[in-house]
């Protein structure tokens, strides 16, 4: 992430809460506290009214905001519920992407709306699944589906207990009660296969483009199993 993008993201983060600590900013962007102080100073010199309280954190002076988006309290609450569910689904990349967009949305809420959101965040939680299989590939796979880019994966087959290097053309993803599953055309086997994301040990985006299958849909895909049963 370049510095301009980071500084813009810090500004959005500052508007997502009443007070944001330097450590929160440093942890999110994996930078030093010294870098945080320098970035905050850059924003202040650019005219952004950022205040600070020793031992507490930074805040945006009331009256300053980015161009607002229209969002109701009910919509904000729905996002909080979604955040709790997503944080419990096992894929780290999806959690990271959703948290990023949620911070942007929180940044345009009014003060009392931020207070209400904070109340709800501490009062709602999904059921905790101790056996959820963790992965970190969903974000890249989604991008591959929309841009029809072939992926190269190292896959661990539990059934044969072997590692294979494969090129796949992602067609869709779905979530079971424990893990994310990618449906893809496997070039190695020359057929459509399912791959559990937690069993993908390594993944790379290639420069190859595959033909988008216009007639593929998850509804049609799963209906085949229903008809055969």
TrEMBL record:
Residues 3-58 form the HTH deoR-type domain. This is YafY family transcriptional regulator. InterPro entries: CBASS_pafABC_assoc_protein, DeoR_HTH, HTH_11, WH-like_DNA-bd_sf, WH_DNA-bd_sf, WYL_dom. Coiled coil: none annotated. It comes from Flavivirga rizhaonensis. It comes from the Bacteria. The keyword Transcription regulation applies. Keywords: Transcription, Transcription regulation. Pfam families: HTH_11 (PF08279), WYL (PF13280). One of its GO terms (molecular function) is DNA-binding transcription factor activity.
